[in-house]
Amino acid sequence: MSAEYRLDMHTHTIASGHAYNTILEMAKAASEKGLSMLGITEHTKAMPNGCTDFYLSNLDVVDRNLYGVELWLGVELNILDYHGGVDISSSILQGLDICIASLHTPCIRPGSIGQNTRALTGAMEHPCVSIIGHPDDGRYPVDFEEVVQAAKENHVLLELNNNSLAPDGFRMNARENDRQMLELCAEYGQPIIIGSDAHWMSLVGRHDRAVELLEEIDFPQELVMNYHLHGFKEYIAEKRRHYRY
After folding, report:
1. Is the dihedral of CA 233, 235, 241, 245 positive or negative?
2. Is the pTM for the entire model greater than 0.90?
3. Backbone φ and ψ of 115, nearest 5°
4. Which CATH number goes with the domain that contains 126?
């Protein structure tokens, strides 16, 4: 892809319990890699050693521009049930910059295709959720057509997770699942976002595997939000305007 990769919205710090750098270190790494925006989306309390409500409710004290990088502070929510319930209250989520929702094995057991699909689509209906994280995890098989249609209806971005595509990755059949998801996104005109899912500063902004797959299937660049800062901000703002808290 010829355009400049401008943002990474899925990263973690030591506050997530199993990542290893501070906010300052992650922001500096983003600056050194030429990113304009960085999302730090901490694991929430249902994840072992995840962030507490108290931590999240105090994030307004943190500067939102570090090393010339615009900082978005938020969460990667844990989906807790097959209706899409999450582990942080709306009163706290409303004060955050960005909210991803994901399925994680410490927090919910894989169900049937129908149950897993409803878990994702139900989370999309939450007014604070703007991104579904790593929907490619084959441990949670889903109906991708239903997922893509629901994302379009609920104005939610689907993530192409670079970490999922690692050769030694633990998410089953990620490449095949991502290909299926992307082909449906292209068909329906559904935007996506690449996330590094970095738990270490050198991985901030890493998107090589994701871009390789996008180029392989000739995915429309206009549907990849990482290359469109203004478009990304407008997309997030539009959900907030449409789905009033």
Report:
1. negative
2. yes
3. -65, -45
4. 3.20.20.140
